[in-house]
Amino acid sequence: MVRNAGIGVVMAASVVFGGDAAAACRTVTHLAQPYAVCSYDPAVSDIRIHHRGRDGLPHGGFEALARDLRQEGEYLEFAMNGGMYESDLTSVGLLVTEGTEAKPLARGQSWGNFYLKPNGVFFLQGKRAGVMETEAYAAASIRPDFATQSGPMLVIDGALHPAFLPHSDSLQIRNGVGVARDGMAVFAISLEPVRFHDFATLFADRLDCPNALFLDGSISSLFAPSLNRYDGAHPMGPIIAVTRKIPGSGK
Questions:
Q1: CB of 133 within 8 A of CB of 120?
Q2: Are residues 246 and 74 in contact, defined by beta-carbon separation less than 8 angstroms?
Q3: In this predicted structure, what is the pLDDT of residue 3?
Q4: CA atoms lying within 13 Å on the CB side of residue 69
Q5: Model-level pTM?
Q6: 238 and 59 in contact (C-beta within 8 Å)?
Q7: Can you name the residues that pair with 9 across neighbouring β-strands?
Q8: 31, 133, 147, 186 — which has fewest CB within 10 A?
């Protein structure tokens, strides 16, 4: 899997990116550590998972995705790396885009964070978002419009992942997604290196998410103009994005 250290900032031209994610994004302090948090209502916002561009190749980053969206008459409002991926930018586990399964659900055993069971799936179906543990997702026979698998789960039905240690010395920049009790899709990225346990409590205790999923660490990237975040130093596989139509585009 791709693992690069640090977060870079690339200021892209305003002609490529649009919107400012307005009140959706904010900075939250939890256990004396800062996080960027962006919340969207899937019944109102256009949340999708993107992977391959108009040329059939992985976008690989926010700028390429924004250019493709521009040609479709859409602005990129928000984006975040959306799950673990191999060196060729293909997803490690389940990936569904526009109702088409690009890679099936991974239910086996191996090494690394992805396989720190239970892992899980973030999905979008109609006007709702969900996060479910992998085996529960498989049993539910969900037919999503979009889905990405990652791991480990951060919060499972209100409980923290059992492997997380409150005094662990493993500190990384981390990002993840949860679904709040009111149905909002909530995305968060740490602004400083944090341990899994503290990151999970952000979702469980502060963001009211009974289920939340870790997306990745160290390569974690965010596009949120209202927070002056235009990360672009790392290659990416799946990308979760919120878009809006360009006024007068006719599309």
A1: yes
A2: yes
A3: 31
A4: 30
A5: 0.91
A6: no
A7: 231
A8: 31
Cα dihedral 182, 185, 190, 194 sign: positive
What distance in Å separates the CA atoms of residue 86 and residue 63, rounded to the nearest whole number?
A: 20
In the structure, what pLDDT confidence band is assigned to residue 250 with cuts at 50, 70 and 90?
Answer: low
- The Cα–Cα gap between 41 and 27 comes to 18
What is the C-alpha separation between 235 and 61, in angstroms, rounded? 6
Please report, as a single letter, which amino acid is at residue 217: G
Evaluate whether 154 touches 200 at the Cβ level (below 8 Å). Answer: yes
Q: Distance between the two ends of the chain, CA-based, in angstroms?
A: 37
Is residue 241 within 8 Å of residue 63, measured between CB atoms?
no
Q: How far is CA 207 from the centre of its chain?
A: 16
Three-state DSSP state, 51: coil
Phi, psi values for residue 176, rounded to 5°: -160, 180
